[in-house]
Every structure is written in C-alpha cells, then in structure tokens.
Amino acid sequence: MRAITFLFRSTLAVVLVAGLIWWLAGPFFHMPTLGVALAVEAVVFWVCGLLYTEDYPHHMTTFAGMTVLLGLLSIGVMLPFARQYVMMHPA
C-alpha cells in the first residue's frame, strides 16, 4: 500500500508540473516536456523499486519493467524533437 501511495503522489506531482510547463511552453517545446516528464516518471519507478523492493519483492519486476519501458518511451518521444532541432540549428 505504501508503494502505491508513493507512486500515486509522485505521479500526480509529475503530471501537475508537466502540465504547467506544457501550458507555459510554446508549441515547439511540447515534445521535450513530454519526454522529460516520461524520464522523470521512469526515475520515480526506479526510486520506488529501490525503496519498496524489500517490502514487495514480488513487484520487483514491475518496478524494473516500468523503469525500462518509460525510459525507452522517453527516448522515443525525444528523438524526433532532437532531429528537428538539429535540422533547424546545424553545427
């Protein structure tokens, strides 16, 4: 129950901050906002795995899997933005 409460509160904080940044940022920066929010959420799952694996050993794969999944999703979201940014600002 403590892990679920931790995940709920931290995810709510990430969503609120990302929503505010999404609203304040211009349309060019919507993708990096989403990518960074997914990366932070991956870190939240990683920290949850570190904190609660001893209490919930049967959820260790869930914490690790969600960390990897959200990290890869973050990279997948950020790659098109990075390509677009590099094309607009060549070296």
Can you put this structure into words, describing what you see?
- This protein is an all-alpha fold and 91 residues long.
- The protein contains 3 helices and no strands.
- α2 runs antiparallel to α3.
- The longest helix has 29 residues, at 60-88.
- The radius of gyration is 15 Å and the shape is elongated.
- The termini are far apart.
- The chain crosses the membrane at residues 7-25, 31-51, 63-82.
- Keywords: Membrane, Transmembrane, Transmembrane helix.
Could you give a quick summary of the protein structure above?
This protein has helices at residues 2-24, 30-52, 60-88. The chain is mainly alpha-helical. The chain crosses the membrane at residues 7-25, 31-51, 63-82.
Give the terminus-to-terminus CA distance: 51 Å
Average pLDDT across residues?
88
Please tally the helical runs, counting DSSP H or I stretches of 4 or more residues. Answer: 3
* Strand residue content: under 5%
Specify the structural class: mainly alpha
Strands, total number: 0
N-to-C SSE string, H for helix and E for strand: HHH
* Main sheet summary: none
- Please estimate the helix content: over 70%
Structural domains: how many: 1
Q: What is the 3D shape?
A: elongated
Output the radius of gyration. 15 Å
Contiguous uncertain segments of 5+ residues: none
Keywords: Membrane, Transmembrane, Transmembrane helix
